[in-house]
Design brief:
With about 210 residues, the protein is an all-alpha fold. The protein has helices spanning about 10-25, 45-60, 80-95, 120-140, 150-160, 190-195, and strands at about 105, 115. The chain has one domain (about 10-195): dinb family like domain (Four Helix Bundle (Hemerythrin (Met), subunit A)), CATH 1.20.120.
């Protein structure tokens, strides 16, 4: 298993963000009403969430992010891929700034009692964009394959995401933990990541008609 203490979490995050963007780039405004694996969220709602979270993490990396409004979903306008790309560039630039690994990140959606260490906070972002990249891909009929080292780094982070009543709330980004399906030995590490975050690895959009 990859030890995320021995790798640059910012480099892993940049690769996860690039992968997510490669799928978002294939979304156009006509697809925004499509269903996603994120509960009742449409693809438009998911992209608005991902775009807003990028702005929030960028603010947190620069010492802000304490107000929930800084993390709010962002309107996508007529160019959803462009809106997401701009937010991705902003958060990548913020994470790359000198001194970021020594900073504390305020993440008020997780807790309001104090900042998280930078490595842990960026790890949350890394996991979010790997999984939400998968969400986007399967919503438009694709089956993504992520590099093994990204998946290995994501698995221990996913295992630490609290499982509790918050995951049952409307609008939760991650659903309750899912068990393996009958006949599935759980050999695929990314399937394990998905199930830990309430995703069915075999999810597919419903057929039209």
């Amino acid at each position: 298993m990859t030890d995320t203490q021995e790798v640059d979490i910012r480099a892993l995050d940049a690769r996860a963000l690039k992968a997510a963007r490669s799928y978002v780039d294939r979304v156009d405004a006509a697809a925004l009403d499509r269903p996603t694996p994120c509960g009742a969220w449409t693809l438009g709602r998911l992209l608005a969430h991902m775009t807003g979270q990028n702005h929030g993490f960028a603010a947190a990396a620069r010492g802000g992010g304490r107000e929930l409004a800084e993390w709010a979903d962002r309107p996508l306008g007529a160019d959803p891929a462009g809106a997401f790309a701009a937010s991705a560039a902003e958060v990548a630039a913020a994470f790359a700034e000198e001194g970021v690994p020594e900073r504390g990140f305020w993440l008020p959606e997780i807790r309001d009692g104090g900042p998280f260490p930078a490595r842990q906070a960026i790890g949350f972002h890394f996991l979010d964009y790997l999984v939400h990249g998968w969400d986007v891909a399967v919503s438009i009929g694709l089956r993504p394959a992520f590099d093994a080292d990204l998946v290995a780094a994501a698995l221990p982070i996913a295992a630490l995401v609290p499982a509790g009543p918050a995951r049952d709330q409307p609008g939760a980004a991650f659903g309750p933990v899912l068990g393996a399906a009958a006949g599935d030995d759980g050999a695929d590490p990314f399937d394990r990541v998905l199930r830990l975050l309430g995703r069915d690895p075999n999810w597919a959009p419903p057929r039209a008609g």
